[in-house]
Amino acid sequence: MTPYRKEVIGDCDLYLGDCLEILPTLGQMGAVVTDPPFGIGFKYKTHKDSADDYGVMMERLMPLLGRVCEGPTFVWQSMVRCADWHRWFPEGWRIFAACKSFVQLRPVEVQHAWDPVIFWGARGGKHAGSIRDWHVATTPNFGAGRESIDHPCPRPLDQVQYIVDGLRVESILDPFMGSGTTGVACVKAGKKFTGIEIDEHYFQVACDRIRDTYKQPDFFVERPKPLTQEKML
Predict the structure, then answer these.
(1) Mean of the per-residue pLDDT values of the chain
(2) 93-141 pLDDT per residue, tens
(3) What is the pLDDT, as a whole number, of residue 90?
């Protein structure tokens, strides 16, 4: 196994390394909220966003996620890969519509105003979480008011926050941490967070954002009381 680095910031355990190697070493997590690279040619610092490699990665990833989490799992996807979802995801998956308040113009045939998030997972026969299956992001993605994040495709914080807040779990895992948006949302929600990121630059961006979030006065200073098993989905 390739050596990895670990940073602990508050209730956040952050790993610099390959999630396919680190996931087997982790204990059980309450939920997963993650945004893997799509294999559609985004320009990252070190990762080659290859369509040919993406399917292989997803086929390796899904069994690992199933071992560390039996609860709610949310995985961002691209519509261009929809023909493969039935091969990668467990039976009974559904789609959460991550809607945008704008259309990001790109040199492609269809300009999508929303991203599909595949989700599944239940406890006690009930569906995961207490949220509707859509959300319209209001966090600015460009222009005035946008948070300066050194990452090619950071997720809107308010959208990730909506999912995190609606999950009745105490801990959340993001094996593709990127700029750390899921971690920031967990800090604000008073939930434990475990993040994994393979690129050292983005890992540092995530660490800095999470550390800065702890310094802000509007997050949960006192952690919520532990949920009983009966109240958890």
Answers:
(1) 82
(2) 999 999 987 665 556 566 678 999 999 986 544 445 567 899 999 875 5
(3) 95
Residue 226 falls within a domain, yes or no? no
Beta strand pairing call for 192-197 and 171-174: parallel
Burial annotation 193-217 (CB, 10 A radius, 16+ → b, else e): bbbbbbbeebbbbbbebbeebeeee
233 within a domain of the structure (yes/no): no
Report the number of distinct structural domains present in the chain: 1
**Domain range holding 10?**
5-219
Percent of the residues in the chain that have a pLDDT greater than 70, as a whole number: 73
Q: What is the CATH number of the domain that holds 122?
A: 3.40.50.150
The DSSP string of the chain is ----EEEEETTEEEEES-HHHHGGG----SEEEE----SS--B-SS-B--HHHHHHHHHHHHHHHHHH-SS-EEEE--GGGGGGHHHHSPTT-EEEEEE-SS----SSSS--SEEEEEEE-EETTEESSS--SEEE--S--SSTT----SSSSPPPHHHHHHHHHH---SEEEESS-TT-HHHHHHHHHT-EEEEEES-HHHHHHHHHHHHHHHHSTTS-SSPPPPPPGGG--
pLDDT class for 11, splitting at 50, 70, 90? very high
55-91 pLDDT tens trace: 889 999 999 999 999 999 999 998 888 999 999 999 9
pTM for this model (two decimals): 0.83
